[in-house]
Design a protein that fits this description.
Layout: E1 10-14, H1 18-30, E2 34-38, H2 41-51, E3 55-59, H3 67-75, E4 85-89, H4 94-102, E5 107-110, H5 115-129, H6 133-182, H7 189-219, E6 228-231, H8 232-242, H9 244-249, E7 253-258, E8 262-265, H10 267-284, E9 290-297, E10 302-308, E11 329-330, E12 333-334, H11 343-353, E13 357-362, E14 367-373
Parallel strand pairs: 1-2, 1-3, 3-4, 4-5, 7-9
Antiparallel strand pairs: 6-8, 9-10, 10-14, 11-12, 13-14
Helix pairs in contact: 2-3, 6-7, 7-11, 8-10, 10-11
């Protein structure tokens, strides 16, 4: 099939933001397209009638007519049904996506968009415009499947927001009320012990909720560490204190030996990563053994190690263990470090977001989770 003549293609760019118009214009002109600009909806409709563009890039939020109304009006004009219309918007929600599809949009791109992605989408739209009726029908089926997948992705993002905002608040409230009870010295010792268990469970649930959110962020490329100088001794000390009750219940001793005081990292992500690794080690450490947390400075950066004396992880499973919901089995029984959730997946994403690496070594006996976080010179 003959490729479209890029030099003859005219692209109408509609956006009320001057910087966005300039970026799209420069990107498209560098590829040889002729670009027509419009600042608003009314101007866009007039430009379509005068210029007859081959493709339209259309913003949604504009002061006169929004993108949906512009799309519907263009579709009603002669030649408007065949012209590809690509919505460009900063809005990331299911309702906006559905509205864009209903109004007649051919594609839906969320800002910020990379110039290379913009070129690919425009090229695809122009190629489809020239397809035969048979191929167009096939494309429409694929487009429907793609739209369904994108809608599911947006629904997943909405679910993540629900989980974080609607579940985090009651968990925090549970912990606050437990603290009130904990400060009441008139309560019996057994009640204080139960309250401590409630607080430990609330903190664990809070970590699980945030892990789920951050794994979702990483899928979208939005997990960006805010690095500062962090007191490593305090971070590990806080984690050991929070998980002390769990360790005591299981008959496990926590041993901390840090050769470094400071680390350049995101404080909150680092704290939750260490908590996940230590909690995982406590879960699979045999009674009357120890879980050790150590650190050392190397030429590569700062290395953290969390070791237990459990059954260990087979060599062939040491990469898979960081995937979501993976379990390691030895014979008919589940072995150590079954990933019941997203804890180890979250740890790997945090380390990689810092430019580091995470791996597993033999503890002889047991397992050692090793984390290397590079440090600035």
């Amino acid at each position: 099939m003959q490729e479209p003549d890029v030099r003859s293609a005219t692209i109408l760019v509609v956006d009320d933001n001057e910087a966005n118009r300039a970026l799209a214009k420069n990107t498209l002109e560098d590829e040889g397209y002729r670009v027509v600009l419009a600042k608003g909806g009314v101007e866009a409709i007039a430009a379509f009638e005068n210029e007859r563009p081959d493709c339209i890039l259309l913003d949604i939020r504009m002061p006169d007519l929004d993108g949906f109304a512009v799309c519907e009006r263009i579709r009603a004009l002669p030649g408007g049904q065949e012209t590809p219309i690509l919505f460009l918007t900063a809005l990331r929600d299911v309702d906006t996506f559905d509205h864009a599809v209903r109004s007649g949009g051919n594609d839906y791109l969320t800002k910020p968009i990379r110039p290379s992605d913009l070129i690919v989408r425009v090229q695809s739209a122009l190629k489809v415009q020239r397809l035969t009726a048979e191929l167009r029908e096939h494309f429409e089926r694929l487009k429907h499947q793609r739209d369904n997948l994108q809608r599911l992705q947006l629904q997943k993002e909405r679910l993540m927001a629900f989980i974080v905002h609607d579940l985090k608040n009651p968990v925090n409230s549970m912990d606050l009320h437990a603290q009130v009870l904990q400060r009441n010295r008139e309560l019996p010792a057994i009640v204080h012990e139960s309250v401590s268990h409630i607080r430990a469970g609330a903190r664990q649930l809070g970590r699980m909720i945030l892990n789920l959110l951050d794994v979702s962020k990483a899928d979208e490329g939005q997990l960006v560490p805010k690095r500062n100088n962090v007191d490593l001794q305090r971070v590990v000390g806080d984690v050991a204190y929070d998980l002390g009750i769990d360790a005591q219940e299981r008959g496990v001793t926590l041993r901390v030996s840090l050769e470094t005081d400071q680390i350049h990292a995101d404080h909150e992500l680092l704290r939750r990563m260490v908590a996940n690794l230590v909690e995982n080690a406590i879960r699979y450490a045999p009674p009357a053994t120890a879980v050790s947390i150590t650190s050392a400075r190397t030429g590569e950066g700062i290395e953290l190690r969390v070791a237990d004396a459990g059954r260990g992880i087979p060599m062939e499973m040491r990469e898979k263990i960081f995937s979501p919901f993976v379990q390691v089995e030895v014979g008919a029984r589940v072995a150590a470090h079954m990933t019941r959730g997203l804890g180890l997946t979250f740890c790997k994403l945090v380390v990689e977001a810092h430019g580091g690496r995470i791996w597993v070594e033999d503890g002889a006996p047991g397992t050692v989770f090793c984390v290397m976080i590079p440090q600035a010179s």
